[in-house]
User: Fold these one by one.
Assistant:
Number 1:
Amino acid sequence: MAEVKLTINGKQITAEKGQTILQAAKANNIYIPTLCHFEGIEGRANCRICVVEVEGMRTFQPACVTKVSEGMAVNTETERVRAARKATLELIMAHHAVDCHHCMRIGSSSEQSLDPKFCEMCFWCDCERDGFCELQTLNREYHVDVLPYIQHEHDYETDDSLDSVIRNPNKCIKCRRCVDVCGEVQTVHNLSMANRGRDIMVVPEMGKPMAESACVRCGHCVDVCPVGAIYMKEHKDEVIYMAHSYEDDVVAQLSDDVLPELDKLYKLEPGTIRIGQVVSALHKIGIKNVVSDEHAAFLAAQQAAEVIDKKLGKEPVIITDSSAVMNFVDRYFPEMKGQISKYDSKQDVFGKLAEEFKGEKRLKTVNVTNVKEAGAEAKETGNVDYAINARELYRIFMRTGGAPARKNVCAFDKSWNDGSLPYAQLLKSKAWNLESDPEELAVLVDGKPVKCAVAHNLGQVRKLLEGDYKKYDIVRLMA
Ligand code: SF4
Ligand code: SF4
Ligand code: FES
């Protein structure tokens, strides 16, 4: 790859030809704020927060789409640049339903005001992103204390028709991240921009409510939305209440997939929070029984293995534990439905085990996992009482003061020794990604390599179901 030399803030750096200023800056640990940009998706320069000065150019350039060139001199933190970013934030705020600004802490720079726990202790504002909203963070960074422009209050109805993935268009900042993820990565194309000018907004298919739209409830738009405009319905109050109830026994299944997100939310280095600390923090908020998800993973994998063993060599083996994949198949590949074997998710297994063990007790179940579709799955199947993700867990800890502490480490309340996971290479937990091609792998069955593919997003699922599945012996589909 050809290289170019440029300076950023007077520092000489080398970048790859074709890289954006933002990519070159990141590679050299130079911070440029962003809002609409999402790593891995091509930028559209919608928000202009990332603007920088490029010597010789008369206007500010958005760093997320402007390519580096030989001899370029870039300044990212001049007074003019900071003033332009602040003005942009003020304009964005003029069209944002600001639940949090009235507390006067948003633009303030004091140490106390920056501590998100003060937000969580406050009951005035209950925005689902309070404490980790990207817009709120930038307002703090740029001291947006007062809102100089008239608030263009929209009064759109909150779309809670799904009771899981909820849309509040009044908070949308039109960054289009959700549209790109739903369309380009998931290939569902449920979300799009409608209207013009200040009435521009994100709408589900043909302006229908979410429950009647093409949404397959994968939950990835929730994850990428930088503000509280699309969110997974929260149950933090119900979980806190349940944990303190004398009538109910509560059992939580905890997955270690929440740890990377918890590190991020607590602004810690990756790998800092350990699972035992989260077990201890869950005990502290009143949940007495916390079990690992490893047993459920083992039982679910056993089910998948049975299907594989029965079908391998006789017909294409296509397996999934995802209800979002099944919703996607229902809508786009109904003719393939009979060929796909659905096995239980870890959440299904947990719910069934709890049902078996509860006897006369009033047993309530909470699945703590960062699987994006888990909230919608709980709502639609009722397999557990609640599914909470890392963000919700963080907000529960903030509200109850039960943060994972370094010294408080507990073992799980019950552990099983199941031995090794069948078809581990194929069936172990795998993360969603933005790639367009599925992962290919060779798994040894009776000493012979078997060709397998794993889809890590719905775009890859589409590719496989359109015919590529025929190239493989076993295909695993994830949303
Ligand atoms: S949940 Fe998934 S399918 Fe539904 S709108 Fe969001 S990204 Fe699209
Ligand atoms: S709903 Fe969220 S992700 Fe989608 S355009 Fe609005 S602010 Fe951006
Ligand atoms: S992050 Fe570059 S324009 Fe929005």
Note: Residues 172-178, 202, 224-227, 229-230 surround iron/sulfur cluster (ligand 2) (CB under 6 Å).
Number 2:
Amino acid sequence: MTDYRLHYAPDNASLIIRLALEEMGQPYETVLVDRRVTAQRSAAYLALNPAGRIPTLETPDGPFSETAAILLLLTERHGKLAPPPASPQRAPFLNWLFFVSNTLHPDMLNLFYVHRYGPEPAWTGIRKAAAKRVDRSLTVLHREARPRLAGWFCADVPSVLDLYLAAILRWLQIYPDGFAGWYDPSAHPAFQDMCTQLEGRASVAALCTAEGLTDRPFTAPLPPDPPEGTVV
Ligand SMILES: N[C@@H](CCC(=O)N[C@@H](CS)C(=O)NCC(=O)O)C(=O)O
């Protein structure tokens, strides 16, 4: 029995939580959310996460959802992967973590779940507009966050912000079918360096094995071949 049980689907946002748990050296169990049968909307799953989204992390204090909230909770509990509350980098860290979670991530979801945002004739337009917003946000993050977060973003040891961003950069390069390929990683060289460093870490090797990702999942991503479950 471990303290943590991660409800996951391969190559979903749950992989960010898996990476954080691996980096923190915390034991955890996983439970597949079977997206083939839309298990994220089952009564049992909704009892844990009423929003019906992935991930959910069960903890001794109950189930938690929302990627950024889970990440913050884990950093507070284990004192790792984020600047401590008294640090001068704490406020900018929260600023940029919430920017990724509240602006970048939802804009990216417009690309993947376009059918939720408008009728089919509008899809290309919705995606193009979302891609522009995502690209602009990445440029702002690249320019503004690093100087304010010395040691905690794109540094030698990853923070939860790096883990979150690396996953987003991966997804932008391979999803959705028919609308990937617009993002140019060379526009943000510090992110590329961060991703390359991350790919050398044991946490990423564990993720690749568990979810069927090929090596270099961030700098040369390919769709996964998961041992269980499906991406969508
Ligand atoms: N705001 C949520 C978004 C999570 C999210 O959209 N997860 C996707 C998987 S990457 C999901 O649940 N998709 C299935 C669905 O929306 O039905 C978070 O930050 O955790």
Note: The chain has a mean pLDDT of 97.
